[in-house]
Amino acid sequence: MNFFRLPFTPNTRILTENTLNQYSEIRKPKRGYFPIKIRKISFSNELLVIGVILDKEPEEMVYIKVTASELLISCSIDTHENYLSRYAYFSLTQLMYYDTEYDFEDYYWPGFFDQETGGSKYLMIHKSKDNLHVSSKVRYKGLYKPGKQLPIVSANVFEPRKAVASIQEQSPRETHTILGFCLADNNNERFRTNHYPFLIPYTGILNKAKTEVRSFTAYVLNEMQLSEIDLTDEQQYLVEICFDMRKIALVASPAYKEDTHRLAEKRKQNQNNFNQLFELWQKALPLLSGRLYTHYCYTFGMRNVKGKPRRSDMISCSFNSETPEICFLWKDMGDYYKLELRLMLGGKIHQLQYYFNTAFFAMLSYSPRKYVLLNSVMDSELVSYFQQSQFQLLVLKKHYDGDFKDFVDRLRMGYGFIDK
After folding, report:
1. What is the distance between the alpha carbons of residues 402 and 39, in angstroms, rounded to a whole number?
2. 325-332 and 318-320 beta bridge pairing
3. Which of 192, 3, 9 is nearest to 100 (CA)?
4. Spatial distance between the Cα atoms of 329 and 419, rounded to a whole number of angstroms
5. How far is residue 374 CA from its own chain's centroid?
6. Residues 260-292: pLDDT tens digits?
7. I want to staple 66 with a disulfide (CB 3.0 to 4.6 A). Which of 104, 117, 225, 378 is the partner?
Protein backbone atom coordinates (compact mmCIF):
# COMPACT_ATOMS: atom_id res chain seq x y z
CA MET A 1 0.00 0.00 0.00
CA ASN A 2 1.37 3.40 -1.01
CA PHE A 3 1.05 6.17 1.59
CA PHE A 4 1.08 9.94 1.30
CA ARG A 5 2.86 11.56 4.28
CA LEU A 6 1.63 14.58 6.27
CA PRO A 7 3.70 15.97 9.18
CA PHE A 8 2.18 16.52 12.62
CA THR A 9 2.67 19.56 14.79
CA PRO A 10 6.01 18.83 16.55
CA ASN A 11 5.78 16.63 19.68
CA THR A 12 2.08 15.91 19.03
CA ARG A 13 -0.14 13.73 16.87
CA ILE A 14 -2.07 16.80 15.67
CA LEU A 15 -2.65 17.51 11.98
CA THR A 16 -3.70 21.07 11.20
CA GLU A 17 -5.84 22.34 8.37
CA ASN A 18 -3.01 24.70 7.42
CA THR A 19 -0.57 21.78 7.03
CA LEU A 20 -3.08 19.77 4.99
CA ASN A 21 -3.63 22.68 2.60
CA GLN A 22 0.11 23.15 2.15
CA TYR A 23 0.30 19.63 0.73
CA SER A 24 -2.81 19.74 -1.46
CA GLU A 25 -4.47 22.14 -3.91
CA ILE A 26 -7.89 20.53 -3.42
CA ARG A 27 -10.48 22.72 -1.68
CA LYS A 28 -14.18 22.56 -0.94
CA PRO A 29 -16.38 24.35 -3.50
CA LYS A 30 -16.91 27.97 -2.42
CA ARG A 31 -20.53 27.91 -3.53
CA GLY A 32 -23.26 25.40 -3.02
CA TYR A 33 -23.60 22.52 -0.59
CA PHE A 34 -21.03 19.75 -0.91
CA PRO A 35 -22.03 16.78 1.31
CA ILE A 36 -19.29 14.65 2.81
CA LYS A 37 -20.03 11.59 4.92
CA ILE A 38 -17.40 9.51 6.69
CA ARG A 39 -17.57 6.47 8.94
CA LYS A 40 -14.78 4.84 10.92
CA ILE A 41 -14.98 1.17 9.99
CA SER A 42 -12.12 -0.65 11.71
CA PHE A 43 -8.80 -0.35 13.50
CA SER A 44 -6.42 -3.29 13.14
CA ASN A 45 -2.63 -3.65 12.96
CA GLU A 46 -2.35 0.12 13.57
CA LEU A 47 -4.42 0.82 10.45
CA LEU A 48 -7.59 2.92 10.71
CA VAL A 49 -10.05 2.31 7.87
CA ILE A 50 -12.53 5.10 7.04
CA GLY A 51 -15.33 4.97 4.50
CA VAL A 52 -15.99 8.28 2.71
CA ILE A 53 -18.87 9.30 0.43
CA LEU A 54 -18.57 12.54 -1.55
CA ASP A 55 -21.94 13.89 -2.69
CA LYS A 56 -23.64 11.03 -4.59
CA GLU A 57 -20.47 9.17 -5.52
CA PRO A 58 -19.86 5.55 -4.43
CA GLU A 59 -18.15 5.02 -1.07
CA GLU A 60 -14.36 4.70 -1.17
CA MET A 61 -11.98 3.51 1.54
CA VAL A 62 -9.30 5.67 3.17
CA TYR A 63 -6.48 4.02 5.15
CA ILE A 64 -4.64 5.88 7.92
CA LYS A 65 -1.59 4.92 9.95
CA VAL A 66 -0.39 7.19 12.76
CA THR A 67 3.35 7.32 13.44
CA ALA A 68 5.31 9.34 16.01
CA SER A 69 5.75 12.36 13.72
CA GLU A 70 3.69 11.77 10.54
CA LEU A 71 0.27 10.74 9.34
CA LEU A 72 0.42 8.09 6.60
CA ILE A 73 -2.69 8.09 4.43
CA SER A 74 -3.77 6.02 1.45
CA CYS A 75 -6.98 5.41 -0.48
CA SER A 76 -8.74 2.72 -2.50
CA ILE A 77 -8.16 4.92 -5.57
CA ASP A 78 -5.68 7.62 -6.69
CA THR A 79 -3.58 8.26 -3.56
CA HIS A 80 0.13 7.37 -3.69
CA GLU A 81 3.32 8.79 -2.14
CA ASN A 82 3.26 11.88 -4.38
CA TYR A 83 -0.47 12.57 -4.64
CA LEU A 84 -3.34 12.97 -2.17
CA SER A 85 -6.75 12.01 -3.57
CA ARG A 86 -9.98 13.97 -3.16
CA TYR A 87 -11.36 11.19 -0.93
CA ALA A 88 -8.34 11.30 1.39
CA TYR A 89 -8.35 15.11 1.52
CA PHE A 90 -12.06 15.43 2.29
CA SER A 91 -12.01 12.65 4.87
CA LEU A 92 -9.38 14.64 6.77
CA THR A 93 -11.28 17.93 6.49
CA GLN A 94 -14.39 16.16 7.75
CA LEU A 95 -12.48 14.89 10.81
CA MET A 96 -11.60 18.55 11.45
CA TYR A 97 -15.22 19.59 10.92
CA TYR A 98 -15.58 21.47 14.22
CA ASP A 99 -12.03 22.79 14.37
CA THR A 100 -8.97 23.63 12.29
CA GLU A 101 -7.04 20.58 13.48
CA TYR A 102 -7.47 16.95 14.52
CA ASP A 103 -5.60 14.96 17.16
CA PHE A 104 -4.83 11.40 16.05
CA GLU A 105 -3.41 10.36 19.45
CA ASP A 106 -6.23 7.82 19.98
CA TYR A 107 -4.98 5.88 16.95
CA TYR A 108 -1.28 5.93 17.81
CA TRP A 109 -0.49 2.45 19.19
CA PRO A 110 2.87 1.38 17.71
CA GLY A 111 3.80 -2.22 18.47
CA PHE A 112 0.67 -3.07 20.47
CA PHE A 113 -0.87 -5.41 17.86
CA ASP A 114 -0.35 -9.07 17.03
CA GLN A 115 0.83 -8.95 13.41
CA GLU A 116 -0.71 -12.35 12.61
CA THR A 117 -4.21 -11.80 14.02
CA GLY A 118 -4.36 -7.98 13.70
CA GLY A 119 -5.80 -7.76 17.22
CA SER A 120 -4.36 -6.41 20.47
CA LYS A 121 -4.63 -7.89 23.96
CA TYR A 122 -3.87 -4.45 25.43
CA LEU A 123 -6.60 -2.39 23.76
CA MET A 124 -10.36 -1.96 23.79
CA ILE A 125 -11.89 -0.94 20.47
CA HIS A 126 -15.44 0.41 20.82
CA LYS A 127 -17.41 0.53 17.57
CA SER A 128 -20.63 2.51 17.17
CA LYS A 129 -22.64 3.29 14.04
CA ASP A 130 -20.15 5.61 12.34
CA ASN A 131 -17.49 6.06 15.00
CA LEU A 132 -14.73 4.08 16.66
CA HIS A 133 -12.90 4.71 19.93
CA VAL A 134 -9.65 3.07 21.04
CA SER A 135 -8.31 2.94 24.61
CA SER A 136 -6.18 0.72 26.79
CA LYS A 137 -7.92 -2.01 28.76
CA VAL A 138 -8.46 -1.21 32.44
CA ARG A 139 -5.70 -3.54 33.63
CA TYR A 140 -3.27 -1.83 31.23
CA LYS A 141 -4.04 1.72 32.34
CA GLY A 142 -0.99 3.94 31.81
CA LEU A 143 0.55 2.23 28.78
CA TYR A 144 3.54 4.19 27.54
CA LYS A 145 3.64 5.02 23.83
CA PRO A 146 7.06 5.69 22.25
CA GLY A 147 7.57 9.41 21.83
CA LYS A 148 5.19 10.34 24.63
CA GLN A 149 6.39 13.30 26.69
CA LEU A 150 7.77 12.18 30.07
CA PRO A 151 8.47 14.48 33.03
CA ILE A 152 11.93 16.02 33.08
CA VAL A 153 13.47 14.74 36.30
CA SER A 154 15.90 17.16 37.91
CA ALA A 155 19.39 15.94 38.74
CA ASN A 156 19.18 17.88 42.02
CA VAL A 157 18.40 15.78 45.06
CA PHE A 158 15.93 17.69 47.24
CA GLU A 159 16.49 17.51 50.97
CA PRO A 160 13.38 16.37 52.85
CA ARG A 161 11.52 19.22 54.49
CA LYS A 162 12.09 19.40 58.23
CA ALA A 163 9.16 18.22 60.32
CA VAL A 164 6.97 21.05 61.61
CA ALA A 165 5.12 21.31 64.89
CA SER A 166 1.33 21.52 64.66
CA ILE A 167 -0.62 24.49 65.99
CA GLN A 168 -2.64 23.56 69.07
CA GLU A 169 -5.63 25.78 68.37
CA GLN A 170 -8.38 26.09 70.97
CA SER A 171 -12.03 27.10 70.50
CA PRO A 172 -12.69 30.76 71.42
CA ARG A 173 -14.15 31.16 74.92
CA GLU A 174 -16.10 34.39 74.69
CA THR A 175 -17.38 34.37 71.11
CA HIS A 176 -18.78 32.09 68.45
CA THR A 177 -17.11 34.03 65.62
CA ILE A 178 -14.01 32.34 64.22
CA LEU A 179 -11.34 32.86 61.58
CA GLY A 180 -10.79 29.77 59.44
CA PHE A 181 -8.73 28.90 56.38
CA CYS A 182 -9.88 27.31 53.14
CA LEU A 183 -7.92 25.43 50.49
CA ALA A 184 -9.39 26.95 47.31
CA ASP A 185 -8.94 24.39 44.54
CA ASN A 186 -9.79 24.28 40.85
CA ASN A 187 -8.93 22.47 37.64
CA ASN A 188 -6.42 24.98 36.29
CA GLU A 189 -7.00 23.93 32.66
CA ARG A 190 -10.76 24.23 32.43
CA PHE A 191 -12.15 27.71 33.07
CA ARG A 192 -11.28 31.24 32.06
CA THR A 193 -10.81 32.29 35.70
CA ASN A 194 -8.87 29.16 36.57
CA HIS A 195 -6.30 29.22 39.35
CA TYR A 196 -3.73 27.19 41.20
CA PRO A 197 -4.64 25.95 44.70
CA PHE A 198 -4.25 28.74 47.25
CA LEU A 199 -5.26 29.40 50.83
CA ILE A 200 -7.94 31.96 51.66
CA PRO A 201 -9.19 33.07 55.11
CA TYR A 202 -12.88 33.04 55.93
CA THR A 203 -15.03 34.09 58.86
CA GLY A 204 -17.72 31.89 60.30
CA ILE A 205 -20.03 31.23 63.24
CA LEU A 206 -19.69 28.15 65.43
CA ASN A 207 -22.63 26.05 66.57
CA LYS A 208 -23.79 26.29 70.19
CA ALA A 209 -21.47 23.49 71.35
CA LYS A 210 -18.55 25.08 69.47
CA THR A 211 -17.79 21.73 67.83
CA GLU A 212 -18.14 22.82 64.18
CA VAL A 213 -18.76 25.81 61.94
CA ARG A 214 -22.53 26.41 61.75
CA SER A 215 -22.37 29.03 58.99
CA PHE A 216 -19.77 30.77 56.85
CA THR A 217 -20.11 34.55 56.74
CA ALA A 218 -17.47 35.75 54.27
CA TYR A 219 -14.26 35.09 52.39
CA VAL A 220 -11.65 37.49 53.74
CA LEU A 221 -10.23 39.49 50.84
CA ASN A 222 -8.68 42.42 52.73
CA GLU A 223 -7.59 43.54 56.20
CA MET A 224 -10.70 45.68 56.74
CA GLN A 225 -12.84 42.56 57.07
CA LEU A 226 -10.82 41.53 60.13
CA SER A 227 -11.06 44.81 62.06
CA GLU A 228 -13.37 43.29 64.68
CA ILE A 229 -11.40 40.06 65.18
CA ASP A 230 -8.47 39.93 67.61
CA LEU A 231 -5.80 38.04 65.68
CA THR A 232 -2.82 36.25 67.20
CA ASP A 233 0.59 36.95 65.67
CA GLU A 234 0.49 33.55 63.97
CA GLN A 235 -2.95 34.20 62.49
CA GLN A 236 -1.83 37.62 61.25
CA TYR A 237 1.21 36.15 59.52
CA LEU A 238 -0.87 33.36 57.95
CA VAL A 239 -3.43 35.88 56.67
CA GLU A 240 -0.61 37.85 55.01
CA ILE A 241 0.61 34.67 53.32
CA CYS A 242 -2.94 34.05 52.08
CA PHE A 243 -3.14 37.51 50.53
CA ASP A 244 0.23 36.97 48.82
CA MET A 245 -1.03 33.65 47.43
CA ARG A 246 -4.19 35.12 46.00
CA LYS A 247 -2.23 37.79 44.09
CA ILE A 248 -0.42 35.17 42.00
CA ALA A 249 -2.86 32.22 41.96
CA LEU A 250 -4.74 33.16 38.77
CA VAL A 251 -3.60 31.20 35.70
CA ALA A 252 -3.07 33.18 32.49
CA SER A 253 -5.10 31.35 29.84
CA PRO A 254 -4.27 31.42 26.12
CA ALA A 255 -6.38 33.81 24.06
CA TYR A 256 -7.97 32.86 20.74
CA LYS A 257 -5.29 32.58 18.01
CA GLU A 258 -2.63 34.08 20.29
CA ASP A 259 0.87 34.25 18.83
CA THR A 260 3.51 31.77 19.99
CA HIS A 261 5.69 34.44 21.64
CA ARG A 262 2.86 35.61 23.88
CA LEU A 263 1.91 32.01 24.69
CA ALA A 264 5.51 31.31 25.74
CA GLU A 265 5.48 34.39 28.00
CA LYS A 266 2.26 33.24 29.67
CA ARG A 267 3.61 29.72 30.22
CA LYS A 268 6.76 31.14 31.79
CA GLN A 269 4.78 33.48 34.07
CA ASN A 270 2.42 30.68 35.09
CA GLN A 271 5.37 28.47 36.01
CA ASN A 272 7.00 31.28 38.03
CA ASN A 273 3.74 31.85 39.91
CA PHE A 274 3.39 28.11 40.51
CA ASN A 275 6.90 27.96 42.00
CA GLN A 276 6.26 30.99 44.22
CA LEU A 277 2.95 29.56 45.41
CA PHE A 278 4.68 26.34 46.38
CA GLU A 279 7.16 28.32 48.51
CA LEU A 280 4.27 30.16 50.18
CA TRP A 281 2.55 26.86 50.98
CA GLN A 282 5.79 25.70 52.63
CA LYS A 283 5.74 28.83 54.79
CA ALA A 284 2.06 28.40 55.60
CA LEU A 285 2.20 24.76 56.71
CA PRO A 286 3.65 25.32 60.23
CA LEU A 287 0.96 27.95 60.84
CA LEU A 288 -1.84 25.84 59.36
CA SER A 289 -1.34 22.26 60.45
CA GLY A 290 -3.38 21.44 63.57
CA ARG A 291 -5.85 24.32 63.27
CA LEU A 292 -9.45 23.52 64.15
CA TYR A 293 -11.17 25.39 61.33
CA THR A 294 -9.81 24.34 57.96
CA HIS A 295 -11.89 23.52 54.90
CA TYR A 296 -11.61 22.59 51.25
CA CYS A 297 -13.62 24.17 48.43
CA TYR A 298 -13.66 23.41 44.71
CA THR A 299 -14.28 26.93 43.43
CA PHE A 300 -15.01 26.41 39.69
CA GLY A 301 -12.90 29.52 39.05
CA MET A 302 -11.53 32.58 40.83
CA ARG A 303 -14.66 34.54 39.95
CA ASN A 304 -16.50 32.57 42.65
CA VAL A 305 -14.03 33.32 45.45
CA LYS A 306 -15.91 36.27 46.90
CA GLY A 307 -18.78 37.11 49.21
CA LYS A 308 -20.24 34.40 51.40
CA PRO A 309 -19.03 30.81 50.95
CA ARG A 310 -21.78 28.28 50.38
CA ARG A 311 -21.90 25.81 53.23
CA SER A 312 -22.52 22.90 50.85
CA ASP A 313 -19.22 23.69 49.08
CA MET A 314 -17.09 23.86 52.22
CA ILE A 315 -15.73 20.43 53.16
CA SER A 316 -13.91 19.95 56.45
CA CYS A 317 -10.29 18.90 55.96
CA SER A 318 -6.91 18.85 57.72
CA PHE A 319 -3.27 19.36 56.77
CA ASN A 320 -0.62 16.77 57.63
CA SER A 321 2.53 18.21 59.20
CA GLU A 322 4.73 15.22 58.31
CA THR A 323 7.26 15.24 55.47
CA PRO A 324 6.32 12.83 52.68
CA GLU A 325 8.77 11.08 50.37
CA ILE A 326 7.90 9.74 46.93
CA CYS A 327 9.00 6.20 46.16
CA PHE A 328 8.44 3.79 43.28
CA LEU A 329 7.58 0.12 42.90
CA TRP A 330 9.18 -1.62 39.89
CA LYS A 331 7.65 -4.90 38.70
CA ASP A 332 8.53 -7.28 35.86
CA MET A 333 5.18 -8.41 34.40
CA GLY A 334 6.53 -10.70 31.66
CA ASP A 335 6.14 -8.81 28.39
CA TYR A 336 6.08 -5.42 30.10
CA TYR A 337 7.32 -3.50 33.17
CA LYS A 338 5.08 -1.72 35.66
CA LEU A 339 6.19 1.46 37.46
CA GLU A 340 3.98 2.57 40.37
CA LEU A 341 4.25 5.78 42.39
CA ARG A 342 3.70 5.56 46.14
CA LEU A 343 4.12 7.89 49.12
CA MET A 344 6.34 7.09 52.09
CA LEU A 345 4.82 8.68 55.20
CA GLY A 346 5.44 7.82 58.82
CA GLY A 347 7.70 4.95 57.81
CA LYS A 348 4.94 3.26 55.78
CA ILE A 349 4.17 3.07 52.06
CA HIS A 350 0.77 4.46 51.08
CA GLN A 351 -1.36 4.45 47.94
CA LEU A 352 -2.66 7.80 46.75
CA GLN A 353 -6.15 8.98 45.81
CA TYR A 354 -6.30 9.58 42.07
CA TYR A 355 -9.73 11.20 41.51
CA PHE A 356 -8.53 14.79 42.00
CA ASN A 357 -5.26 16.57 41.35
CA THR A 358 -4.58 19.29 43.90
CA ALA A 359 -1.17 20.32 42.54
CA PHE A 360 0.94 20.89 45.67
CA PHE A 361 -0.65 18.10 47.71
CA ALA A 362 -1.00 14.34 47.81
CA MET A 363 -4.05 12.68 49.33
CA LEU A 364 -3.87 9.17 50.76
CA SER A 365 -6.41 6.72 49.32
CA TYR A 366 -7.94 5.94 52.73
CA SER A 367 -7.94 9.55 53.96
CA PRO A 368 -8.58 11.84 50.96
CA ARG A 369 -9.40 14.92 53.06
CA LYS A 370 -6.08 14.93 54.91
CA TYR A 371 -3.78 16.93 52.66
CA VAL A 372 -0.09 16.10 52.57
CA LEU A 373 2.10 18.95 51.31
CA LEU A 374 4.70 17.59 48.90
CA ASN A 375 8.41 18.17 49.37
CA SER A 376 9.32 19.92 46.09
CA VAL A 377 7.96 21.24 42.81
CA MET A 378 9.53 18.18 41.15
CA ASP A 379 7.48 15.92 43.45
CA SER A 380 4.38 17.90 42.53
CA GLU A 381 5.02 17.46 38.80
CA LEU A 382 5.57 13.73 39.20
CA VAL A 383 2.41 13.25 41.28
CA SER A 384 0.36 15.26 38.75
CA TYR A 385 1.75 13.23 35.85
CA PHE A 386 1.21 9.81 37.44
CA GLN A 387 -2.23 10.80 38.76
CA GLN A 388 -3.52 10.86 35.16
CA SER A 389 -3.02 7.07 34.91
CA GLN A 390 -3.92 6.09 38.49
CA PHE A 391 -0.29 6.28 39.63
CA GLN A 392 1.10 3.61 37.33
CA LEU A 393 3.01 3.53 34.05
CA LEU A 394 3.39 0.39 31.95
CA VAL A 395 6.01 -0.04 29.26
CA LEU A 396 6.34 -2.94 26.84
CA LYS A 397 9.84 -4.38 27.00
CA LYS A 398 10.26 -3.68 23.27
CA HIS A 399 9.69 0.04 24.07
CA TYR A 400 11.83 0.23 27.21
CA ASP A 401 15.24 1.21 25.83
CA GLY A 402 15.65 4.89 25.03
CA ASP A 403 13.52 7.64 26.56
CA PHE A 404 11.74 5.44 29.10
CA LYS A 405 14.94 3.82 30.37
CA ASP A 406 16.55 7.27 30.73
CA PHE A 407 13.48 8.42 32.69
CA VAL A 408 13.65 5.44 35.06
CA ASP A 409 17.42 5.84 35.53
CA ARG A 410 16.95 9.49 36.55
CA LEU A 411 14.16 8.53 38.97
CA ARG A 412 16.42 5.91 40.57
CA MET A 413 19.05 8.58 41.22
CA GLY A 414 16.67 10.82 43.21
CA TYR A 415 13.99 8.55 44.66
CA GLY A 416 13.63 5.27 46.51
CA PHE A 417 12.92 2.19 44.36
CA ILE A 418 11.52 -1.14 45.47
CA ASP A 419 12.13 -3.90 42.90
CA LYS A 420 9.65 -6.76 42.97
Report:
1. 37
2. unpaired
3. 9
4. 6
5. 17
6. 788 889 999 999 999 999 999 999 999 999 899
7. 104
